[in-house]
Design a protein that fits this description.
The protein is an alpha/beta fold. Helix content is about 40%, strand content about 20%. Bound molecules: adenosine-5'-diphosphate. The site of adenosine-5'-diphosphate has 12 residues, from helix 10 and helix 12.
């Protein structure tokens, strides 16, 4: 039994064929630069990568070429036992607190939510429409926002004029929910406790923190959109919204220009000139003061959230690092935990230095808070949610 997981972007389709029970990825790939003359398809199976360079005019052509790849290089889709197609959908608004079977009505709601997810939802819809036509199995939408539908009102509500907020559906929806749910669930299993007050730090190119009590999310750093919260690869994270008025009035910048500045030209890239944490670290090690400052701001923001969420939850049992930088950057974990020494946090430096794909504890036995590393796997989480639905 397998699930084909699709993450459809505006000019790309990422896919993975997954066996949800074993967690094995049988094949994965990527179609990129759809609609351009330099489109590219990459299909990876059993350690081999097969590539195709030809103009791919739209998502329908892209997906049919993916099917050809499967049938030529394996695993042949007819024999792959596909039970469902799982689609990642970034914005589910207030309508979805779990994955759903995609019907015409569900498609319509995802379309109605475009104003709240202008970059992502139109792109997801392209993939959904094409997959529903091409495959005769259930198509299921798994929403990034679903896990955060449990946020208490006090955490989801901005102190914005009530009428305006309601009319324009402005509230905290969160994002990366599939990862936060998967990782916090793994920590519950790893520590064998289902009453945990825990924090998950998802530190990839996008970055977010969540507070989870007994399996339910009670706070998260991303808000109306994935711009709010931590310092990210290219996003500001938290910033006084008055910076927008200031740039508009003083610099004469348009809304779109400020949007691009905050989402694509800020964060580590804006502070240090590079969005990749490895590169920023290398620059800092070579004495670049901007890179050093970027790392300091990054850690400071993390500490802000750790302090805030400890107070919100009335305690803290575990902090878990996940995603690219969280899973791989031992120095980052050591720097954050060193700052938590006054609160009884003790990192086991040897365990912290081990590279592994396993979920693991990296704090000492007597640490006041258990520190973990859990590799996230959003595709597997999507595949498993699909199996629950069907
Ligand atoms: P995305 O949000 O694009 O899914 P990932 O979770 O793959 O991102 O994380 C990508 C980021 O992880 C990279 O930009 C890089 O900053 C960081 N990263 C990956 N490996 C390391 C490493 N060994 N040390 C520090 N940072 C790393």
């Amino acid at each position: 039994m397998t699930v084909l997981v699709i993450n459809s972007g505006s000019s790309s389709i990422k896919y993975q064929l997954i066996e949800p029970d074993s967690g094995t990825t049988l094949a994965k790939g990527l179609v990129e630069r759809i609609g351009e003359s330099t489109s590219h398809l990459e299909h990876e199976v059993e350690g081999q990568t097969f590539e195709l360079d030809q103009p791919i005019e739209d998502h329908a052509v892209g997906l049919s070429l993916v099917i050809d790849m499967f049938n030529t290089h394996g695993p042949a889709l007819a024999d792959a036992g596909i039970r469902a197609i799982g689609h990642r959908v970034v914005q589910g608004g207030k309508y979805f607190d779990k994955a759903v079977l995609i019907t015409d009505e569900v498609e319509q709601i995802i379309e109605n939510l475009i104003p709240l997810g202008p970059l992502h939802n139109p792109a997801h819809l392209k993939g959904i429409k094409v997959a529903r036509e091409m495959f005769d199995v259930p198509n299921i939408a798994v929403f990034d926002t679903a896990f955060f539908q449990s946020l208490p009102n006090e955490s989801a509500t901005y102190a914005l004029n009530r009428d305006v907020a309601e009319k324009y559906q402005i509230r905290r929806y969160g994002a990366h929910g599939t990862s936060h749910q998967f990782v916090s669930g793994a920590v519950t299993e790893l520590l064998g406790r289902d009453d945990l007050k825990q924090m998950v730090l998802h530190l990839g190119n996008g970055a977010s923190a969540s507070a989870v009590v007994a399996g339910k999310a009670v706070d998260t750093s991303m808000g109306l959109t994935p711009l709010e919260g931590l310092v990210m690869g290219t996003r500001t994270g938290d910033i006084d919204p008055a910076a927008v008025f200031h740039l508009s009035r003083e610099a004469g910048m348009s809304t779109d220009e400020i949007d691009t500045l905050f989402n694509k030209q800020s964060g580590l890239k804006g502070l240090a000139g590079d969005n990749d944490m490895r590169q920023v670290r290398a620059l800092a090690a070579a004495g670049d003061p901007h890179a050093t400052e970027a790392l300091e701001v990054y850690v400071h923001r993390l500490l802000h959230y750790i302090g805030a969420y400890t107070a919100v939850m009335g305690g803290l049992d575990a902090i878990t690092f996940t995603a690219g930088a969280g899973e791989n950057d031992a120095d980052l974990r050591a720097e954050v935990c060193a700052r938590l020494t006054p609160f009884g946090v003790k990192l086991d430096l040897e365990k912290n230095a081990v590279r592994s794909k396993e979920a693991r504890v990296i704090s000492t036995q007597d640490s006041a808070v258990t520190i973990c590393v859990v590799p996230t796997n959003e595709e597997l989480a999507i595949a498993r949610q699909c199996m629950e639905i069907i």
